[in-house]
């Protein structure tokens, strides 16, 4: 790998690329929009029930991981579409595995949400 001097300007530009990725994610990926709506509802519920700091940490990690997985999934899908616009069993496997990763994180986030909010709802 080529060695480069640290450049603050370049680091700021990299942040710009990442924010552009977020913009692309929410503009074109419908699942990401659903996940962000759920995230907003969960934040509202957290404020309503006045959940603890540790519960906020768990919620932040769960929501962040789902959105990160969704972003990776979208990147993989785009790459697959570029590499093989025609039907291909390997592309199907790759896309389905990437989708499974999102599902795993969503199920884990749902479990975290249930563990945190069900006791508040019951009481
Ligand atoms: N080139 C391809 N070759 C083989 N199977 C494909 C191909 N493209 C998509 N598939 C199959 O069709 C499914 C749906 O593909 P698609 O790219 O529409 O994903 P999606 O998750 O339904 O879409 P989105 O996330 O954009 O709503 C994939 O999970 C995969 O099983």
UniProtKB/TrEMBL annotation:
Organism of this sequence: Coprobacter secundus subsp. similis
Domain of life: Bacteria
Pfam families found in the cross-reference section: DAGK_prokar
PANTHER family given in the database record: DIACYLGLYCEROL KINASE (PTHR34299)
Gene Ontology molecular function, alphabetical: ATP binding; kinase activity; metal ion binding
Keyword set includes Protein transport: no
Cofactors required: Mg(2+)
Membrane topology, as annotated: Multi-pass membrane protein
BP term (GO), one: phospholipid biosynthetic process
Positions annotated as active site in the UniProt record: 70 (proton acceptor)
Family under the similarity heading: Belongs to the bacterial diacylglycerol kinase family.
Lineage: Bacteria, Pseudomonadati, Bacteroidota, Bacteroidia, Bacteroidales
UniProt protein name: Diacylglycerol kinase
GO cellular component: plasma membrane
Binding-site residues for substrate, renumbered to this chain: 70
Keywords: ATP-binding, Cell membrane, Kinase, Lipid biosynthesis, Lipid metabolism, Magnesium, Membrane, Metal-binding, Nucleotide-binding, Phospholipid biosynthesis, Phospholipid metabolism, Transferase, Transmembrane, Transmembrane helix
Subcellular location: Cell membrane
């Amino acid at each position: 790998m080529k060695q480069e001097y640290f450049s603050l300007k370049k680091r700021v530009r990299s942040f710009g690329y990442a924010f552009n990725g977020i913009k692309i994610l929410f503009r074109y990926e419908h699942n990401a929009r659903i996940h962000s709506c759920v995230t907003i509802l969960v934040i509202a519920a957290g404020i309503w029930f006045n959940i603890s700091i540790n519960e906020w940490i768990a919620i932040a990690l769960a929501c962040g991981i789902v959105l990160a997985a969704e972003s990776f999934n979208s990147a993989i899908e785009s790459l697959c579409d570029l590499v093989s616009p025609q039907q291909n069993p390997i592309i199907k496997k790759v896309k389905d595995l990437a989708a499974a990763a999102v599902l795993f994180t969503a199920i884990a986030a749902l479990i975290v949400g249930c563990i945190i909010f069900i006791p508040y709802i019951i009481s």
